[in-house]
Amino acid sequence: MNVVLDTNIIVSAALSPGRNASDILLAAITGRFNLYYDYRIAEEYYKVMHYPKFGFEEWEIDAILDPLLKHGIPIHARTLQGMQFTDESDRKFYEVAKTVGAILVTGNLKHYPADGTALSPSDFLALLASN
User: Fold this and answer.
1) Using one digit for the tens of pLDDT, what is the confidence trace for 19-75?
2) How many C-beta atoms lie closer than 10 Å to residue 23's C-beta?
3) Helix, coil or strand: residue 111
C-alpha cells in the first residue's frame, strides 16, 4: 500500500501518543506501508515541527522525522495543472499521492478533492487493518 502523510498526522502523533496518528506513524516507521514524500513535504515536516508553539526539542523532532524519512521513499512528483486548493501548501501532498497512486492520510479532508485519494486517520487505520 502506498501512502502520503499530511504534516498534521506527524504533529498529532508527537502531541498525542497512543492515538490514531501515532499508530499511523508507527506503522510507517515499521514498514507496514510504503511511505512516499518529496523534498517539499520533508521541508514542511521539519519546518512545522520546529514551530515554537509545539515546543518540541530537537531530539524529539529527530527521533520522529529521521526514521520516518529513512524508511520513506523520496520521489519527484508531477505537477497537476488546473487544480485549485484553498491552501496551496496542501497541493504537494496531493501531487505526491497522485504521482504514485497513494492514499493521502490527513486530518483535514476538506482541504483536498473528494475523489477518494484522501482518507481520515480512522478510515485509513480501518483499511490498514483489513489488509
Assistant:
1) 999 999 999 999 999 999 999 999 999 999 999 999 999 999 999 999 999 999 999
2) 19
3) helix
Amino acid letter for position 85: F
Element (H, E) at 104: strand 103-105
Summarised one tens digit per residue, pLDDT across range 82-131 is 888 888 899 999 999 999 999 999 999 999 998 999 999 999 999 999 98
User: For residues 92 and 39, what is the distance between their CA atoms, to the nearest angstrom?
Assistant: 10
What does the block give as the cell for 11?
504533529
Q: Where are the domains of the chain?
A: 2-130
Backbone angles phi, psi at 85, to 5 degrees: -120, 140
**Domain 2-130: assigned CATH number:** 3.40.50.1010
Q: What is the C-alpha separation between 61 and 46, in angstroms, rounded?
A: 8
**Cα distances (angstroms) measured from residue 92 to each of 6, 15, 41, 115, 120:** 10, 23, 7, 16, 18
Q: Taking Cα atoms as reference points, which of 58, 44, 33 lies closest to residue 6?
A: 44
Provide the whole-model pTM: 0.94
